[in-house]
Design a protein that fits this description.
- It is a multi-pass membrane protein.
- Residues 14-224 form the Cytochrome b/b6 N-terminal region profile domain.
- The protein has 442 residues and is an all-alpha fold.
- Helices cover 61% and strands 1% of the residues.
- It contains 18 helices and 2 strands.
- The protein has a two-stranded antiparallel ribbon.
- α4 (75-84) packs across α5 (89-116) and α12 crosses α15 (339-359).
- Residues 367-381 and 428-442 have low confidence and may be disordered.
Length: 442
C-alpha cells in the first residue's frame, strides 16, 4: 500500500494550483483508489464508524460548550437549561451522551478485531501503538466529560479517581493539587476538567491522522493475515472505492440505527440515575461507579487490596496493550489458523465481560448463591470480589504468559499462499498450499 502510485490528474487551474502547494485533493483521490485486500469482512468497517463517532462528538461537544457553564453552582442548572430551553438541546445532549457509549462499543470491537487477526504484528506495530494512545485519550476524555454535568455520580466519581492519583508516591500529591486546583474538588477542578475535555478530542483527531498515515505506509491487514506479493496485487486487491466505501456505508447505516434507538427510545439507559441529582459533597451515593465502558478497569482497580497496587494494576491493564506486538511470539498473524490461541481468545472475551459485570457490583454485595463464600485478604466473604480477582489474573496471564507461550508451542493450521483462492473457493485454507514463508507472513 505504501508503494501505491498516485493516479490523480488535476483537471482545472484551481486544482493544479492547489496540487502544487497543498495536495490535499490528491491525498483524498489516492485514498479512494487505494488497493485494498479483497477479503476484508465487516469487522474492518469499524474504522469508518469510529471516524463518524469522533466527528459527531466534536460537533455536538462544540455546540454544548456554547451553552454550558463550568461553575459548581451553575453547571447542573446549565445542563437542564440545555435540555429544556435550547432549541434541539435535548437531541444534541442525548447524541453526545450516547455517542460516547457508541464510540466505545466501536473501539472495543475494532481493537478486538485487531487482536484476533494479529493486526498489531510487524510491520504494523506503530498503527497499533497509536491506536492505544487514542484509546487512552478516549478514556481520559470520557472521564472528564462524566464530571461536567455535576450530578452526584459526577462529583463523587471525580473524588474517587483524583484520590487515586494521590496514592502515587512522591509525585502523586503535587499532581493531585494541580489537577484539582486546590486541596479539594471545587470550582477550579470543574474549570480544569472542562478545558481538558474540550481540548482532548482535538488531540484524538491529530492521533487519528497519524493512525491513518501509519496505515497508509504499512498497508492494510486482512483476515488471512499474509502480505500480498507484488505479482498478486491485481488478483488479491480491489480499489477502496466503490467496493469498500459501499460496504462501510452499509455498516454505518446499521450502526446509526442502533445509535438512534438509544437516542430516541432509551436515552438514559446507559447512564446512571444518580447523575440526575445535583452534586452534594455531604451525601455519598450508595455505590460510586464510572460509566459502563470503564467498568472492567474499575474492577481491576478494586481487585487489588492495596490502593497504590490497584492504581498500578489499572494503568498496567492499558499499558500492556502498548507492548502487545512484542509479546506475541507466533509467526502466524490470524487466529483463524491458530485453534489453541483462538480458544484462549474467546475465554478472554468472557473474562472482559465478566470484569465489566463485577465492576458494577456493590463492594459489600452478598455472596453469590451457589458459589460459596471465599475468605479474602480483607476478611470479607464476597464472591464478586473473588471472581474479580480471578478475572484480573486471567487478563494479565493472557497477555504476559498465554500469548508468548502458545505462540512458541502451538502448531498452526496450513495457511494459503495468497488471499484470492480462499475468497473464490470459500475455503479458509487449501491443503495444497504450504504454510506461508516468514516473508509472506510479514
Amino acid at each position: 500500500m505504501s508503494e501505491h502510485e498516485s493516479t490523480y490528474v488535476p483537471k482545472t487551474g484551481v486544482e493544479k494550483w492547489l496540487d502544487t502547494r497543498l495536495p490535499i485533493i490528491r491525498f483524498g483521490a489516492d485514498y479512494m483508489s487505494l488497493p485494498t485486500p479483497r477479503n476484508l469482512n465487516y469487522w474492518w468497517t469499524f474504522g469508518g464508524i469510529l471516524a463518524l463517532c469522533l466527528m459527531t462528538q466534536i460537533v455536538t461537544g462544540i455546540v454544548l460548550a456554547m451553552h454550558y457553564t463550568p461553575h459548581v453552582d451553575l453547571a447542573f442548572a446549565s445542563v437542564e437549561r440545555i435540555m429544556r430551553d435550547v432549541n434541539g438541546g435535548w437531541l444534541i445532549r442525548y447524541v453526545h451522551a450516547n455517542g460516547a457509549s457508541m464510540f466505545f462499543i466501536a473501539v472495543y470491537l475494532h481493537m478486538l478485531r485487531g487482536l484476533y487477526y494479529g493486526s498489531y504484528k510487524a510491520p504494523r506495530e506503530m498503527i497499533w501503538i497509536i491506536g492505544c494512545v487514542i484509546f487512552f485519550l478516549m478514556i481520559a476524555t470520557a472521564f472528564l466529560g462524566y464530571v461536567l454535568p455535576w450530578g452526584q455520580m459526577s462529583f463523587w466519581g471525580a473524588e474517587v479517581i483524583t484520590n487515586l492519583i494521590g496514592a502515587i508516591p512522591v509525585i502523586g500529591e503535587p499532581i493531585l493539587i494541580w489537577l484539582r486546583g486546590g486541596p479539594a474538588i471545587d470550582n477550579a477542578t470543574l474549570n480544569r476538567f472542562f478545558s481538558l475535555h474540550y481540548l482532548l478530542p482535538f488531540a484524538i483527531l491529530g492521533c487519528v491522522v497519524l493512525h491513518l498515515w501509519a496505515l497508509h505506509s504499512a498497508g492494510q491487514n486482512n483476515p488471512v493475515g499474509i502480505l500480498i506479493p507484488k505479482d498478486r496485487t491485481k488478483k488479491d486487491m480491489l480499489p477502496f472505492h466503490p467496493y469498500f466505501t459501499l460496504k462501510d456505508g452499509f455498516a454505518i447505516i446499521l450502526f446509526l440505527l442502533l445509535f438512534a434507538i438509544f437516542v430516541f427510545y432509551q436515552p438514559n439507559a446507559l447512564g446512571h440515575a444518580d447523575n440526575y441529582i445535583p452534586a452534594n459533597p455531604l451525601q455519598t451515593p450508595a455505590h460510586i461507579v464510572p460509566e459502563w465502558y470503564m467498568l472492567p478497569f474499575y474492577a481491576i482497580l478494586r481487585a487489588i487490596p492495596d490502593k497504590f497496587g490497584g492504581v498500578v494494576a489499572m494503568f498496567s491493564a492499558i499499558g500492556v496493550l502498548f507492548v502487545l506486538p512484542w509479546l506475541d511470539t507466533s509467526k502466524v498473524r490470524s487466529m483463524r489458523y491458530r485453534p489453541t490461541m483462538r480458544t484462549f481468545f474467546f475465554i478472554f472475551l468472557v473474562v472482559g465481560v465478566g470484569l465489566g459485570w463485577c465492576g458494577g457490583q456493590l463492594p459489600d454485595a452478598p455472596v453469590i448463591p451457589g458459589l460459596g463464600g471465599v475468605v479474602l485478604l480483607d476478611g470479607n466473604l464476597n464472591s464478586y470480589l473473588w471472581l474479580t480477582r480471578l478475572f484480573t489474573a486471567y487478563y494479565f496471564l493472557f497477555f504476559l504468559v498465554i500469548l508468548p507461550f502458545v505462540g512458541l508451542k502451538e502448531t498452526p493450521l496450513p495457511i494459503p499462499a495468497t488471499i484470492s483462492e480462499p475468497v473464490l473457493t470459500g475455503a479458509d485454507a487449501m491443503p495444497a498450499f504450504a504454510p506461508a514463508s516468514p516473508e509472506k507472513r510479514g
